[in-house]
Amino acid sequence: MNSQRVLVAMSGGVDSSAVCLLLRDQGYEVVGMTMRAYDLPHQFADGATEPDYILSAKELAATLGIEHHVIDVRKEFRATIVQNFIDEYCAGRTPNPCVMCNRTFKFRLLQDLADELHCDFIATGHYVRKQVVGGFHYLLMGDDLRKDQSYFLWRVPQATLARCIFPLGEMEKPEVRKYLDEKGFSFRAQQGESMEVCFVTADYRDFLREECPDLAATVSGGFFVDSAGRKLGQHQGVPFYTVGQRKGLGIALGKPAYVLRLNAEKNTIVLGDETELATQTFFIENAEFVNPETDAIHPELSVRVRYHSIPVACTVHTIEGDDRLLVRTQLPVSAITPGQSAVFYIGSRLAGGAFIANQRGIGAFIRK
Q1: In angstroms, rounded to a whole number, what is the distance separating the alpha carbons of residues 210 and 28?
Q2: Which portions of the chain are predicted below pLDDT 70?
Q3: Is residue 119 among the annotated active site residues?
Q4: Per-residue model confidence (pLDDT) at position 1
Q5: With helix as H, strand as E and coil as C, how does the chain read?
Q6: Which sign, positive or negative, has the C-alpha torsion 200, 309, 101, 108?
Q7: Partners of 156 in beta bridges
Q8: 20 to 30 A from 221, CA-CA: which of 68, 127, 157, 203?
Q9: Cα gap 64→30, rounded to integer Å
């Protein structure tokens, strides 16, 4: 019988519910933690003072007879993750708040509470696996590649990963639902998927307008331009566009146009053909590799430039006099988007990651 304590991140949904049951069946003493980060109106039933996902987590904890803690970080979450989300769009970058939150909030809070409650391990419902190689703790893609979430976890520190358990890494989503159903939790087995960005319910542009009522007036009046700098028409403001966008541009050029680059300083947006989005060379910054001495130069290194994109073979190079690194890919990748993550793999093993940097000056490095 396993008597070790494990702290589980409980969201009240399908995956974390299955994790609690799986670990309990394996003999662990399960303790639950639910992070209250951001309240949305639709999460509250009439008269309820807590959102539905917290009530769901509490109900499961009571049913299983496990200890459960709610950590209220709404103020700090808004001041950091939400504000960063807004600031990045205003700077002409496209943020990934989940990447930021996993390091700054979710896994940090899990580790701190695990220490406080004397829990040996931390567990989450992420569809990833883990492997120790040369003393380093690596994440592996989940067996269910459609649900693999390794891309979002590249910033989780080694000390935290060493204590992590990922019970769903070798399962597929239908298996998880079936398991809950067989355990008598049919209602939970049929629950829908959670949102990717927990504080945005619809279009991020509407969120920006709600949070910053004066933003639209402040950033409007800039111009769409072509690659040669010729003005094509006015746009609504850099924060309301992202690299690779085609729909909703509000301009008719007689042919499909795509956002190639954003310049928040000049308030200009460069439009062009879809073929101009493809590249085999781009800059990254703030890179972190699990084993800095070997992973960045591994001959089988590949990179994902967005969630669910197929890893493409690549090499990483330093640039004299520049804090950025240069990535070259064997095959073209499309819509390189500053602010998003470039995540590196060696086979199915997550080797590291970085933020895609401003691509100013990249032309000098593109092989003709």
Answers
A1: 44
A2: 1-2, 195, 368
A3: no
A4: 46
A5: CCCCEEEEECCCCHHHHHHHHHHHHCCCEEEEEEEECCCCHHHCCCCCCCCHHHHHHHHHHHHHCCEEEEEECHHHHHHHHHHHHHHHHHCCCCCCHHHHHHHHHHHHHHHHHHHHCCCCEEECCCCEEEEEECCEEEEEECCCCCCCCHHHHCCCCHHHHCCEECCCCCCCHHHHHHHHHHCCCHHHHCCCCCCCCCCCCCCHHHHHHHHCCCHHHHHCCCEEECCCCCEEEECCCHHHCCCCCCCCCCCCCCCCCEEEEEECCCCEEEEECHHHHEEEEEEEEEEEECCCCCHHHCCCEEEECCCCCCCEEEEEEEECCEEEEEEEEEEEEECCCCCCEEEEEECCEEEEEEEECCCCCHHHHCCC
A6: positive
A7: none
A8: 203
A9: 9
Report the C-alpha gap between 317 and 322 in whole angstroms: 11
Determine whether 101 is an active site residue: yes
Catalytic residue among 20, 98, 164, 198: 198
| Terminal Cα-to-Cα distance of the chain (whole angstroms) | 64
pTM across the whole model: 0.94
The token pair at 1 is 């019988």
Whose tokens are 């809070």? That residue is: 109
